[in-house]
Amino acid sequence: MAKHILVTGASRGLGFHLTRLLVHQGHKVLAVARSQEGLLQLKQDCSAMKGQLILQAQDINNVEELVQEVERELQTVDVLINNAAAFLKKEFTKLSRDELQRIYNTNVFTPLLLVQQLLPLFNSHAHIVNISSVGGVQGSLKFKELLPYSSSKGALNIITECLAAELDEHLVYCNALALGSVSTQMFKKAFPGFSAGASPNEMAKYIAHFALNAAPLINGKVISVSHTNP
Ligand SMILES: NC(=O)c1ccc[n+]([C@@H]2O[C@H](COP(=O)([O-])OP(=O)(O)OC[C@H]3O[C@@H](n4cnc5c(N)ncnc54)[C@H](OP(=O)(O)O)[C@@H]3O)[C@@H](O)[C@H]2O)c1
After folding, report:
1. Could you tell me if 225 and 206 are in contact, meaning their C-beta atoms sit under 8 angstroms apart?
2. Which residues pair with 122 in a beta bridge?
C-alpha cells in the first residue's frame, strides 16, 4: 500500500537516492531541501515512476512553514525520515557559538521540533527514522575537527530513545540508524581521499526497507549500519 512519506535533505546524497527509490516503489513522497537544482534533477529522475513526488525547496529550520506544507500536500504522515544534516569540519579551538548553533539547529533541534509539530498528522503506527552516524555512538572511534557534527548525532541518538517513550501512547515509533561511511558529498568533505563503505544507493535500499518494515518490532533503538570506520 502506498505510504505518505516525508524525506528531508533530498537534493543530493542519501536523501536523493532514498526519495527516488521510495517513489519508484509507488509511495507519495514530499521531498525537502534548499537547492532547487537538486530537487529538479530528482523530479526528472522520478518522472516515469509510479509513485508521487512533491518538491519543497526550503530550509528545514523553518519548521512551521514545512509543517504547513506537509498538511497541505500529504495531510497525514506514515513515515518521516529525518535525513538532512549540517556538516562542519573545523579545529576545536576556532569554533564559534554561531557555528555550533547552526549544526545543532539542523541536526538536533529541527528534527525534534518537526516531530513535535507533526504529531497531529502522524497516522497510527507511523515510523520516524532519524539518520544518525556511528560518530554519534558512545565508544565509537572519534576524529579531530568533527566535534560539533559527531556530538550533534550523539544528541540525536538520545532524542530518538526519548521520543520513543514520548510517542508510545500515540502508537508512533522512532528509531535511529547510525550510519557508517557512505560515498556522498558530506563523506568527501569529512574524509578526503578515503573510500566509503557503501554507495548511497546501497544505503538507501537498507533505509527504505527499515523505514517501511522495522516498526513496531523495533522501537527506540539506535542501530549501527556500518562495517567500516570511517
Ligand atoms: N555520508 C556519510 O558517510 C554519512 C555517514 C553517517 C551519517 N550520515 C548522515 O546521512 C544523512 C545524509 O547525508 P549525506 O551524506 O547524503 O549528506 P549530503 O550529501 O551533504 O546531503 C545532505 C542533504 O541535506 C540537505 N540539507 C542540509 N541542510 C539543510 C537545511 N537546513 N534545510 C534543508 N535541507 C538541508 C542538503 O540539501 P541542500 O543543501 O540543498 O539544502 C542535502 O540534500 C545525514 O544525516 C548525515 O549526517 C552520512
Report:
1. yes
2. 77
Check: CB of residue 86 under 8 Å from CB of residue 59: no
- Is residue 165, in this structure, part of any structural domain at all? yes
Nearest atom of ligand 1 to the alpha carbon of 13: 16
Q: Does the residue 96 lie in any domain? A: yes
Whether 60 is covered by a domain: the verdict is: yes
What digits encode the pLDDT tens for the residues 152-208? 999 999 999 999 999 999 999 999 999 999 999 999 999 999 999 999 999 999 999
Is 230 a domain residue?
no
Question: Is 206 a known active-site residue?
Answer: no
Q: How many distinct structural domains can be found in the chain?
A: 1
Give the domain range for residue 183: 4-225
Pocket residues for ligand 1 (CB within 6 Å)?
A: 8-15, 32-35, 38, 59-61, 83-86, 106, 131, 133, 179, 181-182, 184-187, 196
**Any idea what the CATH number is for the domain that residue 117 is in?**
3.40.50.720
CB-based contacts of 229, cutoff 8 Å, min separation 6: 134, 140, 141, 180, 181
Confidence of residue 76 (pLDDT cuts 50, 70, 90): very high
- Cβ atoms of 31 and 13 closer than 8 Å: no
Q: Are 58 and 73 in contact (CB under 8 A)?
A: no
State in Å: Cα 169 to ligand 1 middle: 31
